[in-house]
Write a structure and sequence with these properties.
By secondary structure, the chain is α/β, with parallel strands linked by helices. It folds into two domains: 50-217, NAD(P)-binding Rossmann-like Domain (Rossmann fold, 3-Layer(aba) Sandwich), CATH 3.40.50.720; 224-315, no CATH class. Helix content is 51%, strand content 12%. The chain is built from eleven helices and eight strands. The protein has helices at residues 26-50, 61-72, 86-91, 100-104, 120-126, 146-155, 194-209, 219-241, 253-266, 270-278, 281-315; strands spanning 53-57, 76-80, 95-97, 110-113, 137-140, 161-167, 182-189, 213-216. Strands 3-2-1-4-5-6-7-8 form an eight-stranded mixed beta sheet, sandwiched between helices. Helix 5 packs parallel to helix 6 (146-155) and helix 8 (219-241) crosses helix 9 (253-266). The longest helix is centred in the C-terminal third of the chain and has 35 residues, at 281-315. The relative contact order is 0.08. Keywords: Oxidoreductase.
Length: 320
Amino acid sequence: MIISHPFTPTLGATSAGGYTRFRPPAIRALDAAQLYDREAQASDVLERRGHLKIAIVGFGNFGQFLAQTLARQGHNLLAHSRSDHSAAAASLGATFFSDPNDLCEQHPDVVLLSTSILSTTAVLRSLPIQRLRRNTLFADVLSVKEFPKNLFLKHLPPHFDIICTHPMFGPESGKNGWVGLPLVFEKVRIGDSGDRADRCKRFLDIFQREGCRMVEMSCAEHDANAAESQFLTHTVGRLLAKLDLKSSAVDTKGYEALLNLVENTCSDSFELYNGLFMYNKNSTELLERLDLAFDSLKKELFAKLHDVLRKQLFESSPEK
């Protein structure tokens, strides 16, 4: 009687001595390869699920800056702008659409507004939102937040999701990476279903993966803080630019910082600065406070000057 060993093949070539030559069970290697393939395929599926189809509306300097990172992360990018940026889009792996109807018919997961503040209303009204899927997520990256929030709530039907974000950095400050740079956001309106909440999370993960400091706050709170941190910075920088300051051999570190401030603020368009003033109600009050502070400082200086002049006038007068 022949007793088969579990590791002995039932069929195999025989050697000259009549013994069965042992061959390793090929099926086990096949099982291992199949297991590896299944794991790889599952990983690929999870990776693809993390990717979003994002339509960037407003493909100027800042839109292209964002697209670089979005493309590197593997997201499917669509682009639309009033100007022809098809060449720039192609270089970043994005598909450019000059007609917003064609853009919306691609059914993006996210419509990201990266327009100037002043043109946002006209651009949003020009979008044929009826061609989008009913649960599309709308987002913006404007430097003011109450304005786009109210605009979205006014013009977008309730079946669209809304998140307002402000990456508080740009092509210059973020050119070496986004680690530690703040991303301020408010989830204005996100549907209750799990897939819509997951899509919002995947959108925010874009910035979290790059190491951004995630700051969740209301749009109103953002604007109150940004009036001082952003509008004031731009105002001082542009005010100094009016003086036409020059570098010299005796520059102090403080003066160099002022020159850098001028360069950084004036590299942005005046349209952006004007938008920070026009569409943030806190900016008007801050400008008035700045004006009062400057007047107060001048009065303090001239008061000291008058005291010195009086002393010199009366103390140097001849005695009678």
